[in-house]
């Protein structure tokens, strides 16, 4: 009986991505009906596969093959069917002898017309949204781009909202995304190399870089890693990210993702490499450093003094995210002497009737907070307000008044939660939110000693990570003095002569010296 | 792989160094805010502790409970171990001394028993050196710990804050006290505290109002080298002493010009002690007191925007300060015969070689030496107007 279940659970048992007919470099047959049969077999049970015949006399002389929904009906009618059926009827159809003539006589008003001779090319073309035209008696086919896939418009990126800066964000179409980058760099040195990944999905992946800035070793490494991916399908850039990152056992993101074309372009200008994946609005940027996680897209657009201030706030909030709950637990349970007396008395008074130990109470609240946050993301907008009401009133107010949790703990957890959202890169914020839990447990067991141990362990881990051969903690470790100034604060653009040391190098200045604005007096 | 295992094992050994057993929940601790030391008639010590009642403390906008938010607990015993054992047996929570900021010695206790019993204050790691310490003038420490103040709910805080506000040593008192015990050139002193009346008493009032008792600073308690209390300085003398020591940072004094009062409020104060050794080996001191402050009273109505007039006042204040401080020093030299000012330390620093021969009977030498006080007073703020607004005839000039 168990064998039977096992067999049921095992499923098909012989998964294959091969087509029923070996199409590889199989030439077309001059006989149209044979070609038609072959294609029909390949596309068997594909309801969207359409064959459109044109009769000359009683015989099917010309066949159109395409996938319904991928091709643009308007273009099909105006560019292909009309010329064939009406405009050129007496002239064209009667004496067409070869496909070449169709092109020669400029019957079709479409783009990228090719003549091919293999079945597999036809199949690939049809799957991409091309239309294939086969004529009886010829072992050749004509394919032409007729693709029109419905896509979302260009919208403001939701994950990286800015006050100042361009509002266009990537969408799911690779062509649109490329055009958005191309629009910003009007140079042929901006390159896109295409690699197709995924045995069955055959997803287009574009490696984008600026020739002349990017280092060849980095570029080669990226290409090698992506070409090495063996996977059935790529649905999102996250698939690529997980398959090519250096250290798979870390919560810290080693590859930056962005929805913003301006962020991609600014990274390309620094000598980084961007990976665009079809069907996802998130582009990947490699290599990433730890500090990138603290830089928002609009940092470069706003006043540098203000941005410097905000960056300091971000690092402050970063330390609060990681350390505040654990410090709270360690100080109150292990080292109460370190708390100022009056604060200590207030905390003691607030905690008087709380039944749980502080570490349990804090962990509980942190977990509930994470749950609330997660619920807020998943819930439909209509019920979203219910979560905030329940979160704020039930947990914030009622739990404190009932004496189940103490007000200081709620304050600590709420502050931590808010602080974690200050970190501009969502995935970096997520990593920091994760590591505060081990920190909390460490501090609950070992006190301040545990916090220090946890902190040292985290730092050791961080300096060990590399992103595409470039140290994660650079420019702090290893130290690049000229880059350090742009970590904690942002220096004005006229003072940043070079880009980051590891990706940009020091050969050619990016912004030459002596451009500090100094208007002449008396003019 | 093997080295990884070793590393993980090493990490686990961390848990042996410290661990959950060191943690104590807040509501398992009894917060001990202040300690009082007294002596019982049979020679046993009595230790009183002021302990917070957290549930009576006002939180979350609720009204403060009418009950007091502290209580005083005390026990007798031959030694501190016994006393603490007795106290702990009366408390459901673990005593926690980490936030004790005030220690109070009863007068009887201070007269004789400090040296015998109080090693614990500086030994126990629970006790902070940042601690204010008082001697009760005319009473027991237990009484002081029970005395409330209308502004502060806890007497410990009251004493500490009063001490800080008056420009004294604040919670450095204990540290200074320990330092002075271990030096030859200065005798230990401690601030004194007493229970006093909140309001001045009018002659018509027969008896004082009930419930108007408060804690008040009462000057300085003077100790000899055996740590026995030998007397008190009053508040004024206490401030003179602190000024000479350079520890005072706030003082208001008055003088008069043409029989009309003038007053100054110092905000920058300092002192310089200069020991002078003559050829016969006799020692004398010149003390310079520096004070800068704001004129707060100008009844004579002189126009103090004129520097000439300010000079007159400064001169008057200097004379006053000089007279006052000289009197205080003379009184200490004659009555107590111990160097509470630290003149010996000044000699120690300036003439370390000669000090070796002087230090043995320094207090005798001190009480016989000649001390010359000069004051350098500056008015650096004059208030709202130059002449007095009360002076109808306008500006009076000399």
Task: Give a description of the structure.
The complex is a heterodimer of chains A (523) and B (398). The termini of chain A are far apart. The model of chain A has no long low-confidence stretch (mean pLDDT 86). Helix content of chain A is 46%, strand content 13%. Chain A has helices at 2-10, 32-42, 73-87, 89-95, 99-104, 119-128, 174-182, 216-227, 237-244, 261-269, 304-333, 341-350, 358-378, 381-401, 407-420, 426-446, 448-464, 481-488, 501-504; strands at 49-56, 59-67, 111-116, 130-135, 141-145, 190-197, 203-210, 256-258, 273-277, 283-286, 466-467, 470-471. The longest helix of chain A has 30 residues, at 304-333. Chain A has 19 helices and twelve strands. The model of chain B has no long low-confidence stretch (mean pLDDT 85). Chain B is globular and about 85 Å long. In chain B, the strands form two sheets. In chain B, strands 1, 2, 3, 4, 5, 6, 7, 8 and 9 form a nine-stranded mixed sheet that branches. Chain B has a four-stranded mixed sheet with strand order 10-11-12-13, sandwiched between helices. The interface between A and B is medium-sized, with 30 and 28 residues.
Short account of what is shown:
The complex is a heterodimer of chains A (523) and B (398). With 523 residues, chain A is of the alpha+beta class.
Describe how the helices and strands are arranged.
The complex is a heterodimer of chains A (523) and B (398).
Chain A: H1 2-10, H2 32-42, E1 49-56, E2 59-67, H3 73-87, H4 89-95, H5 99-104, E3 111-116, H6 119-128, E4 130-135, E5 141-145, H7 174-182, E6 190-197, E7 203-210, H8 216-227, H9 237-244, E8 256-258, H10 261-269, E9 273-277, E10 283-286, H11 304-333, H12 341-350, H13 358-378, H14 381-401, H15 407-420, H16 426-446, H17 448-464, E11 466-467, E12 470-471, H18 481-488, H19 501-504
Antiparallel strand pairs in A: 1-2, 2-4, 3-5, 4-5, 6-7, 7-9, 8-10, 9-10, 11-12
Chain B: H1 2-17, E1 29-39, E2 45-52, E3 70-77, H2 80-89, E4 94-96, E5 102-105, H3 107-112, H4 114-117, H5 119-123, E6 132-136, H6 141-146, H7 155-165, H8 173-181, E7 189-197, E8 213-223, E9 229-233, H9 235-245, E10 251-257, E11 260-277, E12 283-298, H10 307-336, H11 343-350, H12 352-358, H13 362-368, E13 370-381
Parallel strand pairs in B: 1-4, 1-5, 5-6, 6-7, 12-13
Antiparallel strand pairs in B: 1-2, 2-3, 7-8, 8-9, 10-11, 11-12
Helix pairs in contact in B: 9-10, 11-12
């Amino acid at each position: 009986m168990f064998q039977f279940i096992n067999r049921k659970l095992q499923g098909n048992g012989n998964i294959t991505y091969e087509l029923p007919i070996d199409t590889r470099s199989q030439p077309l047959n001059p006989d149209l009906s044979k070609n038609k049969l072959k294609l029909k077999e390949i596309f068997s049970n594909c309801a969207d596969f359409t064959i459109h015949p044109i009769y000359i006399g009683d015989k099917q002389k010309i066949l159109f093959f395409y996938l319904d929904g991928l091709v643009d009906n308007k273009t099909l009618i105006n560019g292909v069917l009309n010329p064939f059926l009406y405009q050129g009827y007496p002239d064209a159809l009667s004496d067409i002898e070869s496909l070449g003539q169709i092109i020669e006589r400029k019957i079709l008003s479409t783009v990228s017309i090719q003549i091919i001779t293999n079945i597999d090319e036809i199949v690939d073309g049809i799957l991409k949204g091309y239309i294939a035209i086969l004529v009886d008696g010829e072992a050749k086919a004509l394919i032409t781009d007729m693709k029109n896939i419905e896509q979302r418009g260009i919208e403001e990126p939701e994950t990286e909202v800015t006050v100042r800066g361009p509002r266009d964000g990537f969408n799911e179409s690779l062509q649109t995304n490329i055009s958005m980058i191309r629009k910003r760099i009007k140079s042929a040195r901006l390159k896109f190399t295409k690699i197709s990944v995924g045995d069955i999905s055959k997803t287009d992946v574009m490696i984008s870089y600026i020739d002349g800035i990017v280092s060849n070793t980095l570029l080669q490494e990226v290409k090698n890693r992506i070409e090495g991916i063996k996977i059935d399908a790529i649905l999102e850039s996250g698939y690529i990210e997980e398959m090519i990152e250096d250290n798979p056992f870390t919560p810290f993101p080693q590859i930056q993702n962005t929805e913003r074309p301006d962020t991609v372009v600014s990274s390309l200008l620094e000598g980084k490499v961007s990976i665009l994946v079809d069907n996802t609005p998130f582009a990947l940027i490699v290599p990433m450093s730890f500090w990138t996680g603290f830089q928002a897209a609009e940092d470069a657009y706003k006043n540098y003094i203000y941005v410097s201030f905000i960056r300091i706030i971000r690092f402050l909030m970063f330390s609060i995210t990681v350390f505040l709950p654990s410090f709270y637990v360690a100080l109150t349970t292990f080292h109460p002497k370190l708390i100022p007396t009056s604060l200590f008395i207030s905390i003691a008074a607030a905690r008087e009737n709380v039944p749980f130990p502080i570490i349990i109470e804090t962990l509980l609240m942190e977990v509930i907070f994470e749950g609330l946050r997660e619920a807020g993301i998943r819930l439909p907008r209509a019920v979203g307000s219910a979560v905030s009401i329940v979160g704020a009133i039930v947990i914030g107010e009622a739990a404190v008044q009932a004496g189940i949790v103490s007000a200081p703990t709620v304050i600590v957890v709420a502050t931590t939660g808010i602080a974690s959202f200050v970190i501009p890169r969502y995935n970096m914020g997520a990593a920091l939110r994760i590591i505060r839990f081990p920190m909390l447990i460490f501090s609950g067991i070992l006190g301040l000693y545990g916090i220090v141990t946890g902190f040292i362990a985290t730092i050791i881990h961080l300096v060990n990570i590399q992103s595409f051969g470039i140290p994660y903690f650079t420019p702090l470790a290893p130290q690049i003095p000229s880059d350090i100034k742009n970590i904690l604060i942002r220096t004005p653009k006229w003072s940043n002569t070079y880009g980051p040391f590891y990706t940009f190098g020091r050969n050619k200045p990016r912004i030459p010296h002596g451009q500090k604005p100094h208007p002449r007096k008396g003019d | 792989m093997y080295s990884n295992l070793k590393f993980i094992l090493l990490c686990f050994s961390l848990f042996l160094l410290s661990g959950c057993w060191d943690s104590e929940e807040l509501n398992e601790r009894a917060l001990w805010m202040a300690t009082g030391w007294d002596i019982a008639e049979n020679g046993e010590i009595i230790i009183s502790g002021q302990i917070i009642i957290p549930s009576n403390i006002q939180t979350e906008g609720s009204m403060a409970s009418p009950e007091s938010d502290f209580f005083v607990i005390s026990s007798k015993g031959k030694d501190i171990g016994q006393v603490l054992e007795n106290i702990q047996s009366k408390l459901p929570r673990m005593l926690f001394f980490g936030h004790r900021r005030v220690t109070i010695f009863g007068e009887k206790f201070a007269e004789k028993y400090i040296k015998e019993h109080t090693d614990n204050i500086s030994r126990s790691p629970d006790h902070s050196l940042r601690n204010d310490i008082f001697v009760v003038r005319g009473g027991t420490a237990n009484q002081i710990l029970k005395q409330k103040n209308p502004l502060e709910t806890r007497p410990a805080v009251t004493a500490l804050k009063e001490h800080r506000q008056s420009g004294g040593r604040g919670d450095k008192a204990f540290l200074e006290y320990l330092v002075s015990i271990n030096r030859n050139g200065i005798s230990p002193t401690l601030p004194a505290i007493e229970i006093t009346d909140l309001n001045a008493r009018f002659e018509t009032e027969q008896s004082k109002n009930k419930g108007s008792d408060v804690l008040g600073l009462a000057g300085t308690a003077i100790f000899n080298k055996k740590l026995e209390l030998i007397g008190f300085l009053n508040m004024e003398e206490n401030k003179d002493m602190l000024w000479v020591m350079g520890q005072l940072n706030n003082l208001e004094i008055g003088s008069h010009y043409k029989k009309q009062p003038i007053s100054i409020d110092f905000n920058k104060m300092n002192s310089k002690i200069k020991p002078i050794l003559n050829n016969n080996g006799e020692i004398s001191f010149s003390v310079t007191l520096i004070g800068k402050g704001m004129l707060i009273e100008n009844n004579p109505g002189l126009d103090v925007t004129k520097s000439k007039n300010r000079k007159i006042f400064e001169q008057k204040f200097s004379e006053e300060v000089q007279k006052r401080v000289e009197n205080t020093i003379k009184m200490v030299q004659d009555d107590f015969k111990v160097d509470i000012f630290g003149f010996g330390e000044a000699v120690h620093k300036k003439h370390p070689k000669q000090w070796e021969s002087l230090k043995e009977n320094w207090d005798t030498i001190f009480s016989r030496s000649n001390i010359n006080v000069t004051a350098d007073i500056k008015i650096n703020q004059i208030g709202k107007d130059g002449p007095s607004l009360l002076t109808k005839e306008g500006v009076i000039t000399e």
